[in-house]
Structures are given as structure tokens and as C-alpha cells.
Amino acid sequence: MNKAVGYFAVRSRIAAILVGFLSALSFTSPLMAEEIGDPAKGEKVFRKCASCHMLGQVARNRVGPVLNEIFDRRAASVDGFKYSPALKRAGDDGLVWDREHLDLYIENPKTLVTGTRMNFRGIKDPQDRADLIAYLRLFSASPLNIPESAPTAVPSDPDLDPAILAIQGDPEYGEYLASECLTCHQVDGSDKGIPSIVGWPRDDFVIAMQAYKNKHRVHEVMRMVAGALSDEEIASLAAYFEMVE
Q1: 66 with 78: CB under 8 angstroms?
Q2: How many whole angstroms separate alpha carbon 217 and alpha carbon 34?
Q3: ∠ CA 141-145-149 to the nearest 5 degrees?
Q4: Cβ neighbours of residue 82 closer than 8 Å, sequence gap 6 or more
């Protein structure tokens, strides 16, 4: 294929995908419902929590601490809130609010942290907990951000065909294709909320893109962008970004 023709064809495919995705996007749409839960339903479940906790721009500590940005936060670390000695010990011992520990704590706080002052009987239904976690996710790192916060991040594809990694991409062609990547990622390697991909080892780049393409990673835009690229195009992008300094 003529490189210039191929470049414009890929650019058109990616542009169409991004326009379609952004036009359909709303803040409350359950982008991660398949992997986490339904945030619209989780908002209703949160009513059980709202007598003690607040979310959003006007949130403040009440009986319980604010729950904004809770994912990957060390337990008992909100400034100005007086925690129980038990939860402080748990935080000092390394308890971090990832998806697994949030689920356990919501199911029964005193099972996870003996001696916590959180007098809540817990939510027994696993789907209700998943929906609540999806709702809390909207007030932590946005589902559109890269990298995904802990509830949506999954390992790279462990079963990637070695033949895909063996493809020798054309860095010159990769440079043609790279302009779409650089609408978000910074060519100078700076990290402004979106991680740098400049200087990435080639295999790491291919593994990550194939994980999006195969839907092992859940970032919706990246899934669609990777899905629009052939294995050879991904390899060419990888070859280009590896050599950029």
C-alpha cells in the first residue's frame, strides 16, 4: 500500500471513530458497566451512604469522610477527618482502597477492619456493590483518562501471539500514522495527565495496543483506536515511538 494513502485511510478511520464516540458520550453514561457495574443504578444505591458521606464539588467531611478520588487512596488519609484508631492502623499497615478492598468494606466494614467506627450493616448484594463502585468511579479518575484507575485497569494480554510481536514495523510509516496519537500524547515526552508514549520499548507498546484491540483493557477510546489499526500499523507506530527521543 502507498504509505501516504495508508496514512490518510487510517486517519479517516480513527477520526470517524472519535467523532462517533464523543458525540454519543455523556458524563453519566455507564462506560464501564460491563467491567464494573452500572453507575446510574449505583447512584440510587449511594442513597444508603449519603447520610454520612458526600461526593462532588461541594463535598465535605460529615460523619464519614468525602469519597471523591477514593480509588488508590490510602485508608484513613483524608485531611481534617478524625478516623478510628482501627482504620488508622489499617492505613499504616498498607490498606489502599482498590476495587477489591472497597467491595469487601462495603459488604461488611467490620469484617475488613475490626474496630472501625463505621456503623453500617453493609450491602450484601454483589451487583449493588458493583453498581455503587461504578458510581464512585465517576468521582475518581475519569473513565476517559489514561492510565485507567485501579477499578478498570487490567493486565496486558498474557496470551499475545508471539508472531505479532515479531512483526517488524516501519518507523517511517509509523511517523505518518503518529499524528492521531499526538492529538493527546505529547511529542516532547511530557506527561500532562496522559502518560508519555515517547521512547516506549517496542514490545511494551505493541502489547498495550493489542490489549486494547482485544478488549483486555477497558479504555473505550483506546479500544476503538486500536481496533481501527492493523497489526502491521501498530508495529510501525511502536517502531516509531521507540526511536523518538
Answers
A1: yes
A2: 12
A3: 45
A4: none
Run of H or E residues at 32: none
Q: Please tell me whether residue 104 adopts helix, strand or coil conformation.
A: helix
DSSP state for residue 237 in the 8-state scheme: H
Phi, psi of 137 (to 5 degrees): -60, -30
Q: Which three cell numbers stand for residue 243?
A: 526511536
The residues near 92 (Cβ < 8 Å, ≥ 6 apart) are 76
Q: Which three cell numbers stand for residue 200?
A: 516506549
- Neighbouring-strand partners of residue 73: 97
Tell me, yes or no, if the pTM score tops 0.70: no
Q: What secondary structure letter does DSSP report for 149? A: P
Domains along the sequence of the chain with CATH: 3-25+148-243 (1.10.760.10), 39-137 (1.10.760.10)
Amino acid at 176: Y
Whether the CA torsion 207, 210, 214, 215 is positive or negative: it is positive
> Residue 168: which residues within 8 A CB-CB, separation 6 or more?
235, 239
The CA distance from 114 to 117, in Å, is 9
Instruction: Pick the range with the lowest mean pLDDT from 7-16, 47-56, 134-143, 169-178.
Output: 7-16
Instruction: Please give the share of the chain, as a percent, with pLDDT higher than 70.
Output: 76
CA dihedral 153, 159, 163, 167 (to 10 degrees): 10
Q: What are phi and psi of 4, to 5 degrees?
A: -65, -40
Residue-wise pLDDT tens digits, 204-221: 889 888 888 888 776 778
Take residue 33 and report the three cell numbers written for it: 458497566
